[in-house]
């Protein structure tokens, strides 16, 4: 038998977005796209952290989704058997969003292979997608070393143990949260209308008191 160890986790939830919230988010990203439309042909997709719009979680149009993200992140952490609440040996943790930005996938666009080494968790929420369009999937890569990576053997069939990638379809109102260390990309999107999503970098810190083996709260940081 083969004993599969050390799972990699990705959290997924389909949210019931109110109509007015959806309209406001689409309107905001429409304006973001129109402001940067001159870049069509020069970039594979429009991402706010590159184009000067990197903190949309502070905008009222996205407050509902940000609150949902906080709630579902806590559920994710709870399902992992952890807590953000104080314990006898830890002061508790806070959640910070250092960056959050809109992403517009145009026809033929995508996002290259990368990870978010500057954060602990990453999240994506699909604001507007085309029904039954399976292009532009999010591809998440297995951490290294993979079970079979670097071995001098020839693979003849795909198995669970040799899998290197997991594909996630872009579904409107779907929220995905995963560890930022995971490398991922967005495959080429082919669609009639632009696809809208928002991305988050998330940091987990201690509360204002100090704590060992955790990122100290930024209120305690000293700039030098």
Determine the structural class based on helices, strands and strand pairing. Answer: alpha+beta
CATH topology descriptor:
Jelly Rolls
Number of strands: 10
- Report on the biggest sheet: 6 strands, antiparallel
Q: Descriptors for this entry?
A:
224 residues; alpha+beta; Jelly Rolls; six-stranded antiparallel β-sheet; four-stranded antiparallel β-sheet; 2 helices; 10 strands
Descriptive account of the structure:
- The structure is a single chain.
- This protein is an alpha+beta fold and 224 residues long.
- The protein has 2 helices and 10 strands; from the N terminus they run βαβαββββββββ.
- It has helices at residues 19-36, 63-79; strands at residues 11-14, 46-47, 93-105, 111-114, 121-128, 138-141, 165-168, 174-179, 184-186, 195-206.
How would you summarize what this structure contains?
This protein has 224 residues and is of the alpha+beta class. It has one domain: q2cbj1_9rhob like domain (Jelly Rolls, Sandwich), CATH 2.60.120.620.
Topology:
Blueprint: E1 11-14, H1 19-36, E2 46-47, H2 63-79, E3 93-105, E4 111-114, E5 121-128, E6 138-141, E7 165-168, E8 174-179, E9 184-186, E10 195-206
Antiparallel strand pairs: 1-8, 2-3, 3-10, 4-9, 5-8, 5-10, 6-7, 6-9
């Amino acid at each position: 038998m083969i004993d599969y160890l050390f799972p990699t986790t990705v959290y997924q939830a389909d949210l019931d977005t109110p109509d007015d919230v959806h309209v406001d988010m689409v309107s905001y990203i429409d304006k973001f796209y129109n402001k940067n439309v001159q870049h069509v042909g020069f970039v594979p997709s429009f991402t706010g952290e590159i184009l000067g719009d990197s903190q949309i979680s502070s905008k009222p149009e996205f407050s509902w989704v940000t609150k949902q993200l906080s709630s579902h992140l806590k559920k994710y952490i709870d399902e992992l058997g952890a807590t953000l609440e104080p314990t006898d040996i830890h002061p508790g943790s806070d959640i910070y969003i250092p960056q959050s930005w809109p992403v517009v996938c145009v026809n033929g666009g995508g996002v290259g292979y990368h990870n978010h080494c500057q954060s602990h968790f990453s999240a994506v929420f699909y604001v507007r997608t085309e029904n039954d369009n399976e292009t532009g999937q999010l591809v998440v890569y297995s951490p290294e070393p993979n079970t079979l990576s670097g071995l001098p053997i020839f693979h003849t069939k795909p198995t669970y143990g040799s899998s290197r990638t997991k594909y996630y379809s872009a579904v409107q109102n779907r929220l995905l949260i995963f560890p930022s260390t995971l490398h991922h990309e967005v495959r080429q999107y082919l669609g009639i209308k632009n696809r809208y999503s928002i991305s988050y970098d998330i940091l987990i810190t201690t509360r204002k008191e100090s704590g060992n083996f955790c990122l100290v709260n930024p209120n305690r940081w000293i700039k030098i």
